[in-house]
Design goal:
Helix content of chain A: 25-40%
Oligomer: homodimer
Strand content of chain A: 15-25%
Radius of gyration of chain A: 18 Å
Order of helices and strands of chain A: EHEEEEEEEEHHHEHHEEH
Largest interface: A-B, 41 and 41 residues
Number of helices of chain A: 7
Strand order of the largest sheet of chain A: 1-2-9-4-7
Distance between the termini of chain A: 49 Å
Chain lengths: 232, 232
DNA sequence: CGTCCATTTGAGGTGGATCAACCCTAGTGG
DNA sequence: CCACTAGGGTTGATCCACCTCAAATGGACG
């Protein structure tokens, strides 16, 4: 594999142009980088490539332009908990301290925009609006984590899958259809379940007519209210 | 009960003096309120009294002076997930938005110091150091939530209890002994377990000599390394 | 057309939940 | 000072939702 990058954390493709986001996504990042003339760069990562590791210095803050990213923690024996999926428009890797608390990997081929954390911090020291925005973004991550603790600690397998489907539907459905970038194992590691349990729950919802498949990762929700009811 | 407060969210005792914290606790709150001459007030709540409810407007930010507080979310059928315990010195109820995402209750009789959220936000708009501190406090909560997601999604019952004991030992042990303010049900709802499972795990650790009891809530750790190993 | 994974499905095992006594201790009142 | 009570905690027996292990199926891609 001579063409591979030498280090897993060095992006395999390096670009310098700034692309617009594909969709009218609420652009939290642009709202911040637009100020203070921050330098944003584009990088690309191939499927399963590491973007940064757990406890690595947090040098950059990232925004997904295209593709998808998983943030996760590992136990020593390999058990994995995915804390969040990051989809186009999402900012990830933002830390108030100097260390990344979770690792991040590209789920599929992914392009990100990135800026130096230090330059954001500097901008925050000058412009209170930037400081406010950084706080709000971390608070948004906290809100998601709090909701997810309830799911992981207290919901049944079917409730977890229903919650997941509604979340993905909200975040990436176009024309009523969603194209999941992640495999069943990723979904399981996000929901605190095994991949088999996820598959069984999806099959059951399919049998009940609550959702339709066109390929295992192309899902259309046919009865959102039913999912909302089971999500409790 | 004529002497009870009329509303559960109105503190039952109202004080106005500012007491120092009992211990040399790193005082995040003072570091912020010290600036800008913010007005801090003291309130007290009795055991099991609600401090604020889920989705209530976030009017105040709190710091525990004495006692203990649980923050939690409920499902419609009463299942509860406690997201955090707040002990003397801890700040809680800090929101970047206008709404409390979790409810809060006093675990035992508790006294808190509080300031208006709006006045903190105002101070943050003037003093970047205050803004930085608020962001750092929210980031600290996020870090805890991320660790707790790993526990809830992927750890075994024994690993959860070991993690809990080490956390409480770190946060409230004096002279090698810790006095837990919360009951077994609270611990279970924090760890995503039943109270029976928590009790069994503690009994097993007791039988193994890893910990000693003097009363169900007075615990001394006799082998922290053993707990660290099982915490994985 | 064949290979390689991802996914589905089946069969059986198990960790923690549930249901049910029982016990301890602190608080109360005699 | 002690009997009584109530709530929290412990322990036992059983259950079941989800995990584990295994095999079949399917879809993407050379």
């Amino acid at each position: 594999m001579l063409t591979q990058s030498l280090s897993p954390s060095v992006p395999s493709v390096i670009g310098k142009k700034i692309s617009p986001l594909p969709h009218p996504v609420p652009d939290q990042f642009g709202a911040v980088t637009g100020h203070a003339g921050l330098v944003a760069t584009e990088f690309s990562y191939r499927k399963d490539e590491e973007i940064y590791g757990e406890d690595e210095p947090a040098e950059y803050v990232y925004q997904v332009i295209s593709g998808a990213v998983r943030s996760y923690k590992l136990l020593s024996d390999g058990r994995r908990q995915i804390g969040a999926f990051h989809l186009p428009g999402d900012v990830f890797g933002l830390e108030s301290g100097t260390i990344h608390r979770l690792a991040a990997e590209a789920i599929i081929d992914t392009t990100v925009r990135l800026v130096k954390r230090r330059s954001l911090e500097q901008a925050a020291g000058i412009d209170v609006q930037v400081a406010r925005k950084l706080w709000a973004m971390t608070a948004g991550d906290l809100r998601h984590a709090e909701d997810h603790m309830l799911l992981l600690g207290r919901k049944t397998a079917m409730e977890r899958v229903a919650t997941f489907l509604l979340e993905m539907d909200r975040r990436l459905a176009v024309t009523g259809m969603m194209a999941l970038p992640m495999c069943r194992r990723d979904i399981g590691d996000y929901l605190g379940l095994t991949l088999e349990t996820v598959s069984r729950a999806l099959s059951q919802l399919h049998a009940q007519g609550v959702l339709g498949f066109s390929g295992a990762r192309q899902i259309v929700l046919r009865n959102r209210q039913c999912l909302r009811n089971m999500d409790a």
